[in-house]
Structure formats: C-alpha cells, structure tokens
Amino acid sequence: MAIIEEIMNCFKEKFGSEGDIRAYFAPGRVNLIGEHTDYNGGHVFPCALSMGNYGVARKRSDKTVRWYNMTYPDNGVQSADITKLAPTDEGLWYNYQHGVLWAFMQNGYEIPCGYDMVMKSDMPAGSGLSASASIEELAAIIVKDLFNLDVTMVDCAKMGQYSENNYNGMNCGIMDQFASAMGKKDNAIFLDTATLEYEYVPLNLKNEKIVITNSKVKHSLADSAYNDRRRQSEEALKDLQTVTDIKTLGDLDEAGFEKYSSAIKDPVNYKRAKHAVYENQRTIKAVKALRAGDMAEFGKLMIDSHVSLRDDYETSCKEIDILVEEALKLPGVIGSRITGGGFGGCSVSIVKNDAVEEFKEKVGNVYTERTGLTAEFYIADAADGARKLY
After folding, report:
1. Which residue among 144, 149, 184, 262 is least crowded, i.e. fewest CB within 10 A of its CB?
2. Which residues of 327-356 are buried (b: 16+ CB within 10 A; e: fewer)?
3. 176 given a catalytic annotation
4. Architecture of domain 2-202+383-388
5. With contact defined as beta carbons under 8 Å apart, do 26 and 134 qualify?
6. Angle made by CA atoms 78, 80, 86, in degrees to the nearest 5
7. Cα Rg for the chain, rounded, in angstroms?
C-alpha cells in the first residue's frame, strides 16, 4: 500500500529503522441518518469509510511519546511525557492522541511506556467525516496492540468518546468513535446509543450510490454551538422528566413528545428536543425501509432529517442548504441531507448510478456559482473499522 510505504519511510527518517514497527488504520465515517441523537439516547445509522488516518508505530523504553503527522508537517515532531498529560481544549490533532492515552490510564489501564508514531490522512480535514474520531481510534488500536491490552473494539470506542468529552472538552456522543472502531465492509451500523446494542445492516445498493459532497466550509462556531445544542437538549429532558418517567429523549416517540412537550419551558429547547425525538424515529423507520428495499421512503426520511436539522436543531448552514437544495432538483437523487456535527462539512445523498456524473457536474457548477466555492465529491464505500494492518 503506497501510503503506508510513504509513512514507513518517513518514520525511519524521523525515528530510525530498528525494532518492531507496526502499521495501523482507522477510518472516518458518514452518517446516513440519525444526527444529534447519539447523546440523546437515540439511534444512529453510520458506516465507516475507506478514507481515514494511517499510522505506523513502535514502542519506546521510556515514558515519552513522539508523534509526527505528515498531513500537518509544519507542526513538526510533537513529544510529551505520558505521566504529565493534562486536559486541554486546543483541539489540535495531537491533543486527540494525548486524550486517548490519558483516557486509558484514567480508566485503570497500565501504559508501561511511550511510543513513536508517524501518521497521515487521506481524508479531508474539517469535512464533518469525523477526522477527530479517526485519530482517536487510530490511537486506541495502537495502544491496544502495542501494549497487548485486554480491551474490545467497543471499549476502544468508549475510550475515544471519554477522551473527547473529558480531555478535549467536546461533549460528543459515541457515534463517531463507534463507527470508526466497529465498521464493517458493505454494511452500515444500526446502533442504539442508549444501550450500545447494534446490528450490521447490509447496504445492498444495486442501483444507487452514496455520494458525499464536501462543502469545503467549516464555521468557527462549530464546537461551542455543538456543546450548546447538547446543553439545550439536556435542559429540555429535565423539563420533560417533571411530567414523565424517561431517561433520555430517545425514550419518547412522536406521540409521547406531543403529549408531554408543553412541559418544556424554553421555546428553543422545545425545538431541540423535537428534533431529537423525531430524528430517532426517522432513523428507526429508515432502517426498516432499507431492509425492505424501499429506497424512496429512505430518501424521504433523509430529506425530512435535513429540514429538521436546518429548522429545529439549527445545525445546517447556507452552503450545505444550497448543496441539498440543488441535489434535490435532479431526478436521479433519492434523498440528501447534511451529515455530521454540522455548521459546515458535508452533505450525503443517495443517487441513482446513472445520475452520479450529472449530479457532480450540476451540483458542483451551481454551488460554485452561488457560493464561489468548489465542492468535492466522494463515493462512500462502507469499509471495515480500525485495525492493525501488519
């Protein structure tokens, strides 16, 4: 694999060629439907991608870690003492690595020494395809393998989420890390985030492709606004818990929400909770539709999801709205929506095979006309999760 050879050569140049050097990969993810439900006790439906972060690593004999990211060469070699790691909200790539090491140690796992590591991504940064979770799961699989830790890949996902919540200050749910850790080729993951029960659902798309469109926009308010959405959802839940015995917003269906929603005092919080409840039900219905081969229904639910994210959860943005709007004008497009945390990033669309090229051309041209930006298009291949390559 050319990218691994390139990373290996860089590793030998930076850190020397001796010893047991191992190679790893952790993918990004795209979520087909079920957005901002994962921290609200609902269902999600992501798949791991063939794009992600690659790394090679070798154990050291001391307590130092040294990391180099070929994607960000100006950062140089980063080093740290693993006994002195402390939470930070800087959000730099190596903080996500630090956070996972810290999370393992916080949860009672012994990390006896540090390691040297070089990594490189073939996934666009800031695209909403979860580069941060990919970095976290790359770190988790390296730590699991190098130190022979008795942990499952679900544990690795939990460590990634724990680190992002408590080390990096981002109050994300577990979807991104779970998809990166647990992905399966040609399948999406139907995950109940309240219980972590999951099923692999084959993506038997014979006549369609999943097309990801990168808006090339990432608005700076994303992290703080994401945390605001979580806080607003939690406030709505507390109001609802005064009138009904629920643990999460995912415990309600649409009828239940309509019955009890007058208890939510703040009108903004009402909209946030409505999205979480209705989106969870949309996700359950979408998986049923996919299993039944009803792509028209799946597409309709994707569109409804986007409208809800735009109007009730307010995590879309002008550029993504344009991508979705233009996509839905084309006859070969079954469904389209924003995917990921929001405020920029990507849309995901289900497009008939014979319409993919027209989709790229027409959506791309109009997007440039309307925004001055150049969109990028990727065909989503559902891939396996984080793993040791050799």
Report:
1. 262
2. bbebebbbbbbbbbbbbbbbbbbbbbeebb
3. yes
4. 2-Layer Sandwich (3.30)
5. yes
6. 120
7. 21
Write phi, then psi, for 174 (nearest 5 degrees).
-100, 0
HSE at residue 13, side-chain half, CA atoms within 13 A, is: 10
pLDDT tens digits, residue range 372-383? 999 999 999 999
Tokens of 175: 């979807």
Find residue 202's DSSP bridge partners. Answer: 187
- What string of DSSP letters covers 334-384? EEEEEESS-SEEEEEEEEEGGGHHHHHHHHHHHHHHHHS---EEEE-----
| Catalytic residue (one of 74, 81, 89, 176) | 176
- pLDDT tens for 52-69 read 999 999 999 999 999 999
Check pLDDT > 90 for residue 89: no
DSSP 8-class letter at 316: -
362 closest CA partner among 318, 321, 328: 328
Residue 198 carries which side chain, given as an amino acid letter? Y
Average pLDDT, stretch 263-277?
98
Q: Do β-strands 64-69 and 78-81 pair in parallel, antiparallel, or remain unpaired?
A: antiparallel
Does the pLDDT at position 220 exceed 70? no
Q: What single letter denotes the amino acid at residue 130?
A: S
Look up residue 44 and give its two tokens: 């999600």
On whether the CB atoms of residues 303 and 201 are closer than 8 A, the answer is no
CA angle 269, 273, 279 (to 5 degrees): 145
End-to-end CA distance of the chain: 11
Confidence check: pLDDT of 221 > 70:
no
Burial of 264 from C-beta contacts in 10 A (0-12 / 13-18 / 19+): buried
CB 328 within 8 A of CB 336: yes
- CB count within 10 Å of CB 118 equals 26
Contact 137, 121 (CB under 8 A): no
